[in-house]
Amino acid sequence: xxxxxSGMQSSGRVHLGNLVGALQNWVRLQDAYECYYFIxxxxxxxxxxxxxxxxxxxxxxxxxxxxxxxxxxxxCTIFIQSKVLEHAELHLLLSMITPLGWLERVPTYKEKQxxxxxxxxxxxxxxxxPLLQTADIIMYRAKHVPVGVDQVPHLEISRExxxxxxxxxxxxxxxxxxxxxxxxxxxxxxxxxxxxxYDNAIYLSDSPKEVEHKIRTMATDPARIRRHDTGDPELxxxxxxxxxxxxxEEQDEVAEGCRTAGIGxxxxxxxxxxxxxxxxxPIWRKREQLINNPDQLKExxxxxxxxxxxxxxxxxxxxxxxxxxx
Length: 326
Fold this sequence. Notes:
This protein is mostly helical and 326 residues long. It is built from 14 helices and five strands.
């Protein structure tokens, strides 16, 4: 089976955008590929280095949500990045050959600096984020990396670095290819992209009461001030969530009800709450089971990390030999 590699930063709680944009796809891929999925705790430090308590909590929460969303440790390898020290070694060796300009031109470098302008991101760790990401990917000589179309340019630097390494030292690494996936855009409760940074997310760890409250208090089309006012569903963040979680018939019904004032905004939100609950209820049940069984969590992540470490060690034998470091 061809190998797939992907990871998720342990920089906060997992929300619906993470579930729909990544985890649900990972669950599908584990039946068709040899999948390595990791908790990227080193990556979380590139922008959140000043708050290690969040990191510790997030690693455990991320592991629980990986499993609650449907990742099966018998079908995929789940591990923690910082427990495989070979990632740091390969990152260091790649830094010897990577031109500085390549890192400075990565699209997210300036975007994230602007988005997180309240933080001091003038560090090598932040600049070198794509290099560590490259080490993560090519360490396992993965054939594919699941990404959306907008993320393909971010993968290109990993391909360039692998190509440059192979040019100097011989064909050690395959150039990772994008496994294109349609990721639906999941809006937050304020209409912007769902994000921990914007504090507009519905989290997998939220209680049913919290989820219902967040949806009930969402803004809709501002033109609908009174019950009999007509509106435009496309202007409503609630309807954008319907596009992700409701079926086509329900979408059509709430859209028509909005345009004609046939239903009120509360009725529209009740349908959405019902459908979000359908997705979250099995995850809540699994989360409760896992939270109460820490020994099971430790066994799963230890087994996955041991397997990942073995694969990484095999790669580093080839790298050291190629670079004259035997």
